[in-house]
Amino acid sequence: MTVQTIGKSLPRVDARGKVTGASPYSGDLSMPGMLHMKMLFAGRPHARVLRVDTSKADVAPGVVAVYTAKDVPVNEYGLQWQDQPVLCGPGSTKPGADVVRFVGDQVAVVVATTEAEAASAVKMIEVEYADLPVVIDAEEAMKPGAPRIHEHIGDSNICAHYKIRRGNVDEAFRRSDVIVESEYRTPVQEHAYLQPEAGLAYIDEAGLITIVCGGQWTHEDQHQVAHSLGMPDEKIRVVYPAIGGAFGGREDMSVQIALALAAWKLNRPVRIIWTRQESMIGHGKRHATVIRAKWGATNNGKVNAIENEIIGDGGAYMYTSNKVLGNSAITSTGAYFIPNVKTDVYGVYTNNVPGAAFRGFGAPQALFMAEMQMDKLAEKLGMDPVKFRLKNALRDGDPLGVGTPSPSPVSVAQCIEAARDRFGWKTDYRPQTTDRRPSSIDNGLPSIVRGQGFAAGFKNIGFSFGYQETCWAKIELHGKSQVERVVLYHSGAEVGQGTHTVMLQMAAEATGVPFEKVELIASDTATTGNSGSVSASRMTFMAGNAIRGAADAALKKWGSEERPAIGEFKYLAPRTTQFDHDTGYSTPNFAYAFVAQAAEVEVDTETGHTRVIRIVSADDLGKPINPALVEGQIEGAVVQAQGYALLEDYKTKNGRVLTDQLSTYLIPTIWDIPEKVESVILEIPDPNGPWGARGVGELPYLAVAPAIASAIHNATGVWIDEFPFTPERVLRALGKLS
């Protein structure tokens, strides 16, 4: 008898261990004879390292070893381009490895018997620098003659450039009845996961250099460590323990290579835990962008032409800037049919902290612009913004900006209608006043006003862009006449979203056994094949298809009396294509998901403080495997995006980070979150998704910032084109601050 588990809100399998503290995170790991590591951060944004003198540290109490650039066999790494030294300084064969390019570059590591001894010895290392010109403005960095961040890469600081050319934009603007031109600025955002970068490395019983450390793609971590140590991948083992959040921030390496280097050379376990300050200066953030947009529409309410320029600050190293900004290009048209498009998207090297993957992966920046432009056009046309969106919404078969239609059902109109109806959107809504006392400054506004705002969006599922995505799974069926136990092997990471629970549900459904009979062996390169990254909202889609394939193979063997019956399967996602260099024409993704969100906010015109009262999020994810986990993802994404929109203000000066602690970089607490988040889950199955599912990890993040911006405008009458919408920025827009 088949037991149904898909669509049920079963308890998370990792919940008890995480709630009780029994689950070991990277920072909890310990082994007999373990040593401790500390890193020397450059602390300056751009300089050539002339000399590194470790003589005092070498003989400091408790010090076992000190490593510098000359000790790293292949001193380079990077997820997209290997443009970052493991350690910066002289003595490396890597061209340019003697230059530090942001404050978080590392120059040396110390290994000692205690953490305190390692920290003390790091301060004894003497480094002689020759400062180089600091380039912190991406637009300045693009100019001919700007100081180069990487002299050995390309012929400028532009590290990525994507173009979309469709239709005749100039002619379409001439036919437009209204045109809106604006410049937008979106900020850096810190991932702020609970567990900072930490890990333990040792030599296992098979002689493998083993790194136990949080990440998002075990096999890619394995490959990067192996490359830097000049070894074959098979000599490296990567294991993921419990992981304290990721949000894209663990895609790129942090402590893994240095740990592996020390464990290999010393043949002893070595552990490191970054401080919060080290995490906030030493690892990538969400890309800041400058966006210029010109959009035109006709009096009948149709958007007929857009021209965009998006400049993303890639920081000191590539990380995933090329892919992030590729996503910005795709989503820069919004979820709308627009026949004439001209878009240029640039990624630029600077001496800032690198831009990295972060939930939404380039779409939140582009969609902020697109949705603000839609609101402004609607206002100029005198149309309700929701009706205006529905009039322009993509439909099945409509080409995206890149010239090809979505491979998935296009459900943005259904999402807009669902969010509109649940929210109770009023076309003739006027700002509500909750405190009718006049403001002390006479600007015609009461002291506290409320407004409503709306935004929509879409995003790809999976990496794509011509990359052949794969996902591996293995299933073992144990028992005699009946299946008594199912073992699923999969390398996908659990970074807080409930992936492992969903995998077990899909394995139970695919093999026809109760959920309780399935166990998971996960995230260990020694026992699992390559399942790809837990990012791009891809894992439910990819893992589900791999698990179904493995289950089918195992059940066939079970039917042939094999005991245990073992099935392996590597799922290949539908093929995609890269952007055409000149036009952007492509089929860049194999699936898309759509969202619409409505917000109600309260603005205190005396203090500039904005409070989010309510957000409705309507998300089409095909099929929720575990509805409670989906709601948790929606609520978490909304809160994180609200922090991005209102609160989180990552400040730097001349390349140095000023907000390098959680006391100065503020993230939402329970006092800041919306009073109410309402989830509307649409189920429009994807033909290629397992049980029709797509993914939800990033989707409910996408439209929150523009929905809040729209609501602030509705409440106050002012447009604010740069966020976070801090009290100072709101007051300045209201004319109360110079």
CATH superfamily of the domain at 289-463 and 581-733: Aldehyde oxidase/xanthine dehydrogenase, molybdopterin binding domain
The helix/strand class is alpha+beta
Report helical residue fraction: 10-25%
**DSSP helical segment count:** 17
Q: What is the β-strand count?
A: 26
Shape: globular
| N- and C-termini, Cα separation | 72 Å
The low-confidence runs, each spanning 5 or more residues with pLDDT under 50, are none
Binned strand content = 25-35%
Q: Please tell me the CATH architecture of the domain at 289-463 and 581-733 by its name.
A: 2-Layer Sandwich
Tell me the Rg in angstroms: 26 Å
For the largest sheet, list the strands in their spatial order.
3-5-1-12-9-10-11
- Please describe the biggest sheet, giving its number of strands, its sense, and whether it closes into a barrel: 7 strands, mixed
Summarize the structure in words.
By secondary structure, the chain is of the alpha+beta class. Among the domains are: 101 residues, Aldehyde oxidase/xanthine dehydrogenase, a/b hammerhead (Aldehyde Oxidoreductase, domain 3, Alpha-Beta Complex); 328 residues, Aldehyde Oxidoreductase, domain 4 (2-Layer Sandwich). It is 25% helix and 26% strand. It is built from 17 helices and 26 strands. It has a 7-stranded mixed sheet with strand order 3-5-1-12-9-10-11, with helices on both faces. Strand 16 and strand 17 form a beta hairpin. Helix 10 packs parallel to helix 16 and helix 15 crosses helix 16. It is globular.
